[in-house]
């Protein structure tokens, strides 16, 4: 028998919304209900194997039932704000799954299901209804069964005629009579006051229908007789309202054809957009019929063919470029010139090598690629100068939306072009080249629409060449100093361990959480703060709360810091020094952070601890590549506070920076209401914490922890600051208002950070979103300013033919490896370019330091 699956879209979406924890895309689009619905949908499709499928939706809150009963569903809460925008997303999923859906003005999803189920019965189809609403149980018949969700959406319960009789003592068709008598609180159907479900069921078992109950009211006891006499008309009205309409205008079973299965490529595209990674993995693993993008291509390798190809590419003026690189050498390249696609497989020999060199160096041919930094590095290794990268699709996609970091070309092609790229062979490099070419116009238009052309073409795209040069240059390391530091740290760790054993009264494995918990909470009887599945927690947060309880705790924290220093830096750095260059070659990630900051990895040189003196000493191992050179460190002074002054327009902050006052002393004087001369070191220290706390959106709890005061006192500091610096307060409030309106914030150069946290039902999460909104405008601006300075400085160093190398970027600081003969010129150049990168309402100030290693740098006056 042919089977029809009918799904109540509204009911399941509401169930999924309340069952699945809050979930959203990086752009802030809520998706938890769609995710839950989609999981349930494909689970039921796999289990039921229907021949036809359809989904029904309500359309609007007012239906024909409201004309009959004004209070119908009046007590139902409005659709949650985070659920409402998910219905169009679900319809995208259904369209990709090739499942028809229906909605009709004035009717509910139940009515549409009733109409389709009735027509299906008439044509001898079996029907399964999937819903979270028991109203549809009235439709159950020999051919119609209902699957009801339980425990959110994790379980399903099947109702047939037998189960309904067992549960309610009534046939399915009498369930509307039951509602007429007993009512339904969830739908605000009153029924007959005083008659509950049990009495109503007994009456129906005795008399058959509501109408028969009313006819035989005189046979009932006085109380029931009086209730039925007084409310009989209302009961009939309630039955009418509870009855599912089986004839709905425009609903025809012929509009539900045999289900062909999903359009897997379209479904992948939707899942990618909604960031349903687990569903994507399942789909790719299970469905072999997904069609991969396979543009026709020509293989070119002989001299004549390459000459013709070069001529064609120059005529077009722009080419999509995909390179396969193995062991830092190109092995094949795909080129997309217009709709034509070419593959050069023999890049290890002539004439293909010369062709690629000429192509990359030709400034008259725009190269569109994915990950331009790697193209620049390849060119530099081979002694080629890569010219005219027209667009880097990876960096452009990140610029358009930094909440989707490090996107692969396959992800972009699927998301933006609805193309599934092959993984191997010449067909892969051909498809990648053509996908890259097609992404150009699309991403360029998005950059234009978001007013990000300046951000992209003047900062992000040229920065790829800068980072390439920095990674290749690396920073030299004093191996002997690193080894000495490792030995020194080992001695400190051993001494601390002995101290810890003495305080504990016994030796134990300090690195074992279980043994440490035994010492702290059982032997020393310190108050346990937090439990885990395996016992008491001994994480850093717990230990910091216990510092005042026993001297062993401070020793443990210091021990852990030193162990990390030794493992991550002293020993960890030694393991990744390049044997050929003697340098560390970190990888700078341009497309990772939400604020636009760069990050570094393998090794991470941006996170070297500086609070501990031993941590700061790690910097001693970083030296110039030549003993005759110097390291020059150029650090923006208080750039984030200066940006805060610029963005807020606060008069007191602007005056302080324009007059070159000590901003922390000035803040202390303002907040504590004392003359500058009366500011104590303690006042200045607290003012400094408040200054930077405002930038990072610190809470009163965080400030209290940092400066060692109560939350109430910390709150007073923040309130006094915001009262005195009213421009800052107005800036914070306006930033949060704008972020709530737009869903994102924009720093100085129109970078966007989406903030779904602002719309989260949890107050703590919303508060984080507010702090992130303020911080992103400031930190994102600082990130783009130093990036712009890096681009300008790199260009100047190259144009002047200088040997100086920019070797590191650590947030607001740049490190240069400078020959002494170039030092004066470079120091002046660096200060001028960094301070002049952008014009603000307050001056930017750069502090220069130089020395034979990064730790021992001394101030340079310019």
Percent in helix: 40-55%
- Write down how many β-strands occur, each being a DSSP E stretch of 2 or more residues: 26
As residue ranges, the low-confidence spans are: none
First-to-last CA distance = 89 Å
What are the defining features of this structure?
six-stranded mixed β-sheet; Taq DNA Polymerase, Chain T, domain 4; 50% helix; Nucleotidyltransferase, domain 5; globular; Rossmann fold; single chain; 862 residues; alpha/beta
Question: What can you see in these coordinates?
Answer:
The structure is a single chain. This protein is an alpha/beta fold and about 850 residues long. Among the domains are: about 5-170 and about 245-255, 3-Layer(aba) Sandwich (Rossmann fold); about 300-440, Ribonuclease H-like superfamily/Ribonuclease H (Nucleotidyltransferase, domain 5, 2-Layer Sandwich); about 475-585 and about 590-625, Taq DNA Polymerase, Chain T, domain 4 (Up-down Bundle), CATH 1.20.1060.10; about 645-775, DNA polymerase, domain 1. The chain is built from 33 helices and 26 strands. The strands form 7 sheets. The chain has a 6-stranded mixed β-sheet with strand order 3-2-1-4-5-6. A 6-stranded mixed β-sheet has the order 7-10-9-8-11-12, sandwiched between helices. The protein has a 5-stranded antiparallel β-sheet with strand order 23-24-20-25-26. β23 and β24 (about 815-820) form a beta hairpin. The model has no long low-confidence stretch (mean pLDDT about 90).
């Amino acid at each position: 028998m042919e089977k029809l699956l009918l799904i109540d879209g509204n009911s399941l979406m509401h169930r999924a919304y309340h069952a699945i924890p809050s979930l959203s895309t990086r752009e802030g689009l809520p998706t938890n209900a769609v995710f839950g619905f989609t999981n349930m949908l494909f689970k039921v499709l796999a289990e039921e194997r229907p021949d036809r499928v359809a989904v029904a939706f309500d359309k609007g809150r007012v239906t024909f039932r409201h004309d009959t009963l004004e209070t119908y569903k009046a007590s139902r809460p409005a659709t949650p704000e985070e659920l409402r925008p998910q219905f169009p997303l679900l319809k995208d999923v259904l369209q990709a799954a090739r499942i028809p859906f229906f909605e009709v003005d004035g009717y509910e999803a139940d009515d549409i299901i009733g109409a389709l189920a009735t027509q299906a019965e008439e044509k001898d189809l079996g029907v399964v209804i999937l819903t979270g609403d028991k109203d549809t149980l009235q439709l159950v018949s020999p051919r119609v069964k209902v699957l009801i969700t339980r425990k959110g959406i994790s379980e399903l319960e099947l109702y047939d005629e037998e189960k309904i009789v067992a549960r309610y003592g009534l046939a399915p068709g009498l369930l509307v009579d039951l509602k007429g008598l007993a009512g339904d609180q969830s739908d605000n159907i009153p029924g007959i006051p005083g008659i509950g479900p049990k009495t109503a069921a007994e009456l129906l078992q005795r008399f058959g229908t509501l109408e028969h109950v009313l006819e035989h009211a005189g046979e009932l006891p006085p109380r029931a007789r009086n209730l039925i006499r007084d409310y009989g008309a209302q009961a009939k009205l309630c039955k009418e309202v509870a009855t599912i309409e089986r004839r709905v205008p425009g609903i025809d079973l012929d509009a539900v054809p045999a289900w062909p299965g999903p359009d897997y490529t379209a479904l992948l595209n939707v899942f990618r957009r909604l960031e349903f990674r687990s569903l994507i993995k399942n789909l790719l693993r299970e469905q072999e019929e997904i069609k991969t993008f396979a543009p026709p291509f020509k293989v070119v390798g002989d001299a004549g063919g390459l000459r013709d190809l070069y001529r064609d590419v120059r005529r077009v003026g722009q080419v999509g470029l995909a390179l396969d690189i193995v062991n830092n050498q190109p092995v094949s390249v795909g080129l997309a010139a217009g709709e034509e696609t070419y593959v050069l497989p023999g890049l290890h020999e002539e004439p293909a090598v010369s062709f690629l060199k000429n192509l990359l160096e030709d400034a008259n041919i725009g190269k569109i690629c994915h990950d331009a930094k790697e193209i620049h590095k390849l060119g530099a290794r081979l002694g080629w100068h890569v010219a005219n990268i027209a667009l880097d699709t990876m960096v452009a996609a990140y610029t358009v939306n930094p909440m989707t970091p490090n996107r692969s070309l396959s992800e972009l092609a699927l998301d933006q072009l609805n193309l599934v790229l092959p993984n191997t062979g010449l067909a892969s490099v051909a498809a990648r080249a053509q996908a890259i070419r097609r992404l150009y116009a699309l991403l360029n238009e998005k950059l234009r629409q978001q007013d990000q052309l300046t951000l992209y073409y003047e900062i992000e795209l040229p920065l790829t060449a800068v980072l390439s040069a920095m990674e290749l240059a690396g920073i030299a390391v004093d191996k002997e100093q690193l080894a000495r530091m490792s030995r020194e740290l080992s001695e400190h760790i051993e001494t601390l361990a002995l101290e810890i054993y003495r305080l504990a009264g016994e030796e134990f494995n300090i690195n074992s959480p279980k043994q440490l918990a035994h010492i702290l909470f059982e032997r020393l009887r310190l108050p346990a703060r937090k439990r885990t599945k395996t016992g008491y927690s001994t994480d850093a947060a717990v230990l910091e709360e216990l510092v005042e309880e026993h001297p062993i705790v401070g020793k443990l924290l210091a021990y852990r810091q030193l162990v990390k220093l030794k493992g991550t830096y002293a020993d960890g750095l030694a393991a990744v020094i390049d044997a050929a260059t003697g340098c560390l070659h970190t990888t700078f990630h341009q497309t990772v952070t939400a604020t636009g900051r760069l990050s570094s990895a393998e090794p991470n040189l941006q996170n070297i601890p500086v609070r501990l003196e031993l941590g700061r000493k790690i910097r001693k191992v970083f030296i110039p590549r030549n003993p005759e050179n110097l390291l020059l460190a150029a650090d923006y002074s208080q750039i984030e506070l200066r940006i805060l002054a610029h963005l807020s327009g606060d008069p007191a902050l602007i005056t302080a920076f324009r007059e070159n006052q000590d901003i922390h002393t000035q803040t202390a004087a303002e907040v504590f209401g004392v003359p500058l001369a009366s500011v104590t070191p303690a006042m200045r220290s607290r003012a400094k914490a408040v200054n930077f706390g405002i930038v990072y959106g610190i809470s009163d709890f965080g400030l209290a922890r940092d400066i060692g005061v109560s939350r109430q006192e910390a709150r007073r500091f923040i309130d006094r600051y915001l009262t005195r610096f009213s421009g800052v307060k107005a800036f914070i409030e306006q930033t949060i208002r704008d972020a709530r309106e737009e869903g994102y914030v924009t720093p100085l150069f129109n970078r966007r950070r989406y903030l779904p946290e602002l719309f989260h039902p949890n107050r703590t999460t919303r508060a984080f979103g507010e702090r992130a909104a303020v911080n992103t405008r400031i930190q994102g601006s600082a990130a783009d300013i130093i990036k712009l300075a890096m681009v300008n400085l790199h260009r100047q160093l190259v144009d002047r033919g200088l040997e100086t190398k920019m070797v590191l970027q650590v947030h607001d600081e740049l490190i240069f490896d400078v020959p002494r003969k170039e030092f004066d010129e470079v120091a002046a150049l660096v200060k001028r370019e960094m301070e002049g990168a952008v014009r603000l309402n307050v001056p930017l100030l750069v502090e220069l330091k130089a020395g034979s290693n990064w730790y021992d740098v001394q101030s340079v006056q310019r």
